[in-house]
Amino acid sequence: MIKVGIIGSTGYAGAELVRLLLQHPQAEIVWYGSKSYVDQNYADIYRNMFELVDEKCMNDDMEELARRADVIFTATPQGLCASMVGEGILEQAKVIDLSADFRLKDVKVYEKWYHRTHEAPQYIPEAVYGLCEINRSQIPSARIVANPGCYTTASILALYPLVADCLIDPDTIIIDAKSGTSGAGRGTKLGNLYCEVNESIKPYGVATHRHTPEIEEQLSYAAGMDYKPAEGIRLNFTPHLVPMNRGILATCYATLKSGVDASRIQDAYEQYYQEEYFIRLLGKDCFPETRWVEGSNFVDIGFTVDERTGRVIAASAIDNLVKGAAGQAVQNMNLLFGLDEKTGLQLVPVFP
């Protein structure tokens, strides 16, 4: 059994990790970490865990946790993992970080977009970006896996084959994405209150959202380019908050290269994703909906070609708490420990 510790187990992503790992046949949760609820019964915080979890919440002592666990999930705000990780911890346990601390390879880019000093830049070069369908071969040997962001997972997977096969002009990419409110976390924020969100939709982080450089960096690698502050792909990414609990829909636009048609696009998607269990290709003129992936680790992708404008429109849908966070983290854990990456994740989407 893989002994698992979770720091941040009482946030939405942390709670989703608990839900998934409780039904994982090869995992045992040995540490329910929560800075806000130390010594409180986990099942008193999340009543869906009544008679399923008998443990109390523990602190965020990562050094002690590393002595007890084989893998540590940090489902915490930016900066916490970097402030705690060290050689003594990495010699004893793998770390899968659900924050952005190790996603970006240029520390200056991280510090610019996240407005904070990185406290462990020495570990950035070895951290592996944990988008399994793209970096599968690198993950098993990693000590630190940087679990991708939710918007980035949906956006990158929709665009990666198109960029990698040079089917689009990457400088024309526009991403319009919508997320349910759980993507903002469980903390109390005025803008996320029911009366503020219900019966409304709003853009936020316009031209400033922190997932932008993450998408640009990974797509730059797909295009065979380096990503530095003044180089690589530049795109427009606009997220929107919609009044639903879960789900992300990313609609991506780009100008096609000369001679590229729908069949070439379909061929590219099949080349990269046909054997991927968690990616479901809907094909031309069929578009995803968040309701058909809710509660699952699936990514649904569809596209069309606008002959009039010479652009492709590709859309993807994920559950932001599963494939966009906890499910992808478990997928990474499976790869780290030599398991079939579907283990514990063959979840039928929930409907209605």
Order of helices and strands: EHEHHEHHEHEHEHEHEHEEHEEEH
Strand content: 15-25%
Q: Trace the largest sheet across and list its strands.
A: 8-9-7-10-13-12-11
Low-confidence stretches: none
List the total number of helices. Answer: 12
Specify the structural class: alpha/beta
**Overall pLDDT score:** 96
Which key features would you list for this structure?
single chain; 352 residues; alpha/beta; Rossmann fold; Dihydrodipicolinate Reductase, domain 2; 7-stranded mixed sheet; 6-stranded parallel sheet; 13 strands; globular
Structural features, described:
With 352 residues, the protein is α/β, with parallel strands linked by helices. The protein folds into two domains: 2-148 and 323-336, Rossmann fold (3-Layer(aba) Sandwich); 151-319, Dihydrodipicolinate Reductase, domain 2 (2-Layer Sandwich), CATH 3.30.360. It has helices at residues 12-22, 42-45, 62-68, 80-84, 87-90, 107-114, 132-135, 150-164, 194-197, 212-222, 262-273, 322-336, and strands at residues 2-7, 27-33, 71-74, 94-97, 128-129, 144-146, 174-179, 202-203, 236-241, 248-255, 279-284, 299-306, 311-318. It has a seven-stranded mixed sheet. The longest helix is centred in the middle third of the chain and has 15 residues, at 150-164. The radius of gyration is 20 Å and the shape is globular. The protein starts with a strand and ends in a 16-residue tail after the last helix. 48% of the residues are buried. The model has no long low-confidence stretch (mean pLDDT 96).
